[in-house]
Amino acid sequence: MGLVGIALIVAGVALIVAGVARARGPYRRYMALKEQDANVARYEAWRGGARPDGKTGASVAMAMLRRQAQVGAGIVIAGFVLVIAGFVVR
Fold first, then answer.
1. Is the Cβ–Cβ distance between 89 and 2 less than 8 Å?
2. What is the pLDDT of residues 10-40, one digit of tens each?
3. What is the 3-state secondary structure (H, E, C) of 12-47?
4. Residue 51's pLDDT is what?
């Protein structure tokens, strides 16, 4: 394994760590908001009606957090690709 392969593996591992760190916080907050949104939906169904447009502040925040988590996951995938490329390159 050459210097280029080792450099690709190191860069890939760094991207994996950075991606996980970047995605962890928004994903946890997304799951908490998703649970809150489900509680609101149950309450509104019990009360007899939902909001006319169905959009809440939590749903907007969830969309933003989901996007941030997807970006972090993309960085992790790029890191895996670099690690695999590091093993393939000789």
1. yes
2. 999 999 999 999 999 999 999 999 888 888 7
3. HHHHHHHHHHHHHHHHHHHHHHHHHHHHHHHHHHHH
4. 62
Tell the residue number behind the tokens 């394994």, with chain if given.
1
Average pLDDT on 31-51 reads 80
CA atoms in the 13 A half-sphere facing the CB of 50: 12
| Residue type at 38 in one-letter notation | A
End-to-end CA distance of the chain: 5
> Which of 2, 5, 3 lies closest to 85, judged by CA?
5
What pLDDT is stored for residue 61 in this prediction?
87
pLDDT at 52 (0 to 100): 64
Contact call for residues 80 and 12 (beta carbons, < 8 A): yes
CB of 15 within 8 A of CB of 81? no
